[in-house]
């Protein structure tokens, strides 16, 4: 790919999704965008880029952007954040909201749904403590295709085994042929919406807890700051934020501070 | 065996038994920290092995993870009732072994 084409396509993806593509990641363009090119009957990547450039076809641009997003997801990914949610984060949050009995959680990069369903299972396991509560878990993503998969709540044997403990699999999934489907009691706790993190998330409403894990790593420093500042505006003073293990708020925003002893958990300032 | 290779890459010390009875004899001689167990084994099948293991002195200690092609709900439920700690449905990959070992606190 010539430098001008790389500059064009990486700038387009940056402006649409915040994803930063450096020249050393040009192989990613090849592997992710060739299926899009083939689907549209275009012979190679150059042909696809020229088509995007000349046609300015919005649907094709969205398709290209979605193809570049990373949709790796596991149930209970990294385990520890979900233990911290159950043992450290939820108890004080629930205590403070005991009178209104309302809790809203946002998974800002929900991908194929494993994270929001894992959170729903953590909450369901609290049982009687949450009787009568109105719980809303909102999972958003920039990819329409991946959101369709998330809403379908159907996972392969490989997918469920990457993180779902067997006892919880038996309890909260139905086996349908070779796949595993999340039971309605868990599905009903989660709703999925298309959302681009570069946009002001105000229309999504307020959230007590936000999971924004393993997405900021793809953004440049300025975008990270903008996204985190926007998230902070949706949260009450005691709101809590979860980031991925390789992410931090330090040097990025002053709206959150790390919670000592709780790796990956940040308190609203 | 694929599982052994994955476990060795994760720096576990491993040993193998050719059938269920030999596996039980080996455990009785020296209890391991964990057992990765197939359902279908010669001489003594996996579920019988697990019942016998859990009755043996110190046999409540090892973490037992089934790793088998018996993927239906009845088999999984029976294994858990008899005292398995986790269950890996074949086919699997190294991510799955790692995830399961993390869940039971071995990693």
How does this model look, in words?
The complex is a heterodimer of chains A (269) and B (107). By secondary structure, chain A is of the alpha/beta class. Chain A has eleven helices and ten strands. Chain A folds into two domains: 3-68, Chemotaxis receptor methyltransferase CheR, N-terminal domain (Chemotaxis Receptor Methyltransferase Cher, domain 1), CATH 1.10.155; 80-268, Vaccinia Virus protein VP39 (Rossmann fold, 3-Layer(aba) Sandwich). In chain A, 44% of the residues lie in helices and 16% in strands. Chain A has a seven-stranded mixed β-sheet. Chain B has a single domain (2-94), classed as Rossmann fold. Chain B has five helices and three strands; from the N terminus they run H-H-E-H-E-H-E-H. Chain B has a three-stranded parallel β-sheet, with helices on both faces. In chain B, strand 1 (34-37), helix 3 (46-55) and strand 2 form a beta-alpha-beta unit. In chain B, helix 2 packs parallel to helix 3 (46-55). The model of chain B has no long low-confidence stretch (mean pLDDT 94). The chains are: A alpha/beta (269), B alpha/beta (107). The A-B interface holds A 74, 76, 79, 157-158, 161-163, 165-167, 170, 175 and B 71-73, 76-77, 80, 86-89, 91-93, 95-96, 99-100, 102-103.
